[in-house]
Design a protein that fits this description.
- It is a single chain.
- This protein has 158 residues and is of the alpha+beta class.
- The protein has two domains: 7-127, Beta Barrel (Small Protein B, Chain: A); 129-158, no CATH class.
- Helix content is 32%, strand content 33%.
- The chain contains four helices and seven strands.
- Strands 1-6-7-2-5-4-3 form a seven-stranded antiparallel sheet.
- A hairpin with a 2-residue loop joins β6 (105-114) and β7.
- It starts with 6 loop residues before the first strand and ends with a helix.
């Protein structure tokens, strides 16, 4: 059977960039059971309310929901169990330092298959305050309005 190539998106945390200021991103593998992988291949997962923690030098993804595999038997997995993220030791140590000293958090941004292996994109992030969210929305609206005006000018409507 030929290996799967490319980047197949399974789930994306859409609210993450709205609620958090992303400072840096990391890609890590995941330690999964067989029924979890089969459920992910069906495109079923949710990153809502999930987060990552570092415990005893290991990174764990908490509260991610992978529904039970429909064809599974009594060996099915628990949908919200903690899953280990596989990163290099120096990346884990760097993340430990930054999360402890700066008060930053680890937030999952997306879950995907890369060359047939399940990967998660983690962000080192700082929480946004309400005024930061308002400023970002105003900036986005202004950019959209400028692009609309430029498009109308090019078409000769103004």
């Amino acid at each position: 059977m030929p290996k799967e190539r490319g980047h197949n998106l399974i789930a994306r945390n859409r609210k993450a960039r709205h609620d958090w200021t992303v400072l840096d991103t990391y890609e890590g593998g995941m330690a999964l059971t067989g029924t979890e992988v089969k459920s992910l291949r069906q495109g079923r997962a949710s990153l809502v309310d999930s987060f990552a923690t570092i415990d005893h030098g290991e990174v764990w993804l908490r509260n991610m929901h992978i529904p039970e595999y429909t064809e599974g038997t009594w060996t099915n997995h628990a949908p919200r169990r903690s899953r280990k993220i596989l990163l290099h030791r120096d990346e884990i140590e760097r993340l430990m330092g930054k999360t402890k000293e700066s008060g930053l958090s680890l937030v999952p941004l997306s879950l995907y298959f890369s060359d047939g292996k399940a990967k998660v994109e983690l962000a080192l992030a700082r929480g946004k305050r309400v005024h930061d969210k308002r400023r970002d929305m105003a900036k986005r609206d202004a950019e959209r309005e400028m692009a609309r005006a430029i498009g109308q000018h090019r078409k000769g409507m103004r």
